[in-house]
Amino acid sequence: MSFLRRNRAATPAGPDFDVLAMDPGDWPGNLGAGLLPAPDGSCQGVFLRYDLFGGRGPAMIIGNLPEGSPARELDDGQVPFEVAQLLDALENDEDVEVTGIEDCPVMQGDNLLIVRKVKLSEGRISCVQFDRSDNVLVTIASWDRPITDDLYALLKPLPAELFQQG
């Protein structure tokens, strides 16, 4: 896909990759963002938490994890990082496991994505993943609402200023 670019700064102030998510201006609820720092100060991932429930918990978490991020290393049956973050934010301490994965082709503009639908033991969570052309893994975890193909049309790179410190 051609919508991605790398940027490098002398002092890491945010991710060194574009973050693909929904524009906060297009979302009617609250938005929170988190960076996963590495010991050297580089960014090992970004997750965005979209809250439609009026402060009662997020409706969706979208994560962007670059190649080599420790959050991508999962044991068999272990849920993706974003699912764990969603459960934590909802203060849900149920033991949730991956029960299966299904590959589905989805069009995003002129690009074909192979989307992995992650099936979980908790039926109220929907989760999908796909790899971008720069090897960043995008994971979408949604609580109590299905993830439909039209969601992919809303995804776009967010401006780097959104993640600047200061």
Biggest beta sheet summary = 7 strands, antiparallel
Poorly predicted regions: 1-12
Molecular shape: globular
Number of domains: 1
Q: DSSP helix count?
A: 1
Structure characterization notes:
- The structure is a single chain.
- This protein is mainly β.
- The protein has one domain.
- The protein has 1 helix and 9 strands.
- Strands 2-3-4-8-7-6-5 form a 7-stranded antiparallel sheet, covered by helices on one side. A two-stranded antiparallel sheet has the order 1-9.
- The longest helix is centred in the middle third of the chain and has 9 residues.
- The protein is globular and about 35 Å long.
Secondary-structure blueprint:
Elements: E1 19-22, E2 30-37, E3 43-51, E4 60-65, H1 81-89, E5 98-108, E6 111-120, E7 125-131, E8 137-143, E9 155-158
Antiparallel strand pairs: 1-9, 2-3, 3-4, 4-8, 5-6, 6-7, 7-8
